[in-house]
Amino acid sequence: MAKKKCIKSCPDCPKCLPNWLAAFGDLMSLLLVFFVLLLSMAVFDKPKVEEYFEVMRKSMGILEQSAEAMDSAARTGPAVESEDAVEEDSDDLKEEIKEEVEAVNSSSSTKVDQAVFTDGESEFIVEIPSSLLFKAGEYNITNRKGKIFVKKLARIIRTMTADFTVEVIGHTDRSSFRSSKIPRNNWDMSALRSIAVITELMKNKIDPSILKLAGFAQYRPKGGIASQNRRVELRFFAEKNKGPSLSGDNFFERMKE
Question: How far is the C-alpha of 181 from the C-alpha of 152, rounded, in Å?
Fold first, then answer.
């Protein structure tokens, strides 16, 4: 006897399954697989991924998660960069900047246009001669070679750790001038040249929060040669290593004297 076929019009028969429901089930399964794959490719935080899997497992009951894996995820905390890793990053940063300084110096025809790299105990400084960036008596960066050099420095600075700060310091020579327009004196000139370098760094996607500005006019000369004193320094240092500039007790004691 032939098996009796199920009549589609019989809604009470448990064997009857609407065709659209089977297609809908397949679609939901495929969407789930798609989002799981998308999640696994887009998220690299292992505890977060395992947390998402656990939520889906509890809500849908189709993803297995062992207790051992969950315990391992719970024990895994956020990655903390060790002091050795920070020092290694600092050394790599210094080496890259030093190479760029040597590269720009190799293409300079005179010593006046050569930058200077100075390595200290907790900081390092890049001295850029004003002639490499500005025309005489100006504070806007017009030298194409200088712009390219600052751009290369910016590319390296973008790889720095968050602990570093870049202080841009402007200096002038001892030749004094007065003007009713800005720049009115050497103080204005040193500050405006620092601002020009900071602006160029910001154009090259440097976070302004790691930048500092200073201008010393002619009052911190490097030597007796005027061309050496006309410079902009980029001082790289870790903010946490910088102590307070004034001790509170000593400061108020001096005020009472």
Answer: 33
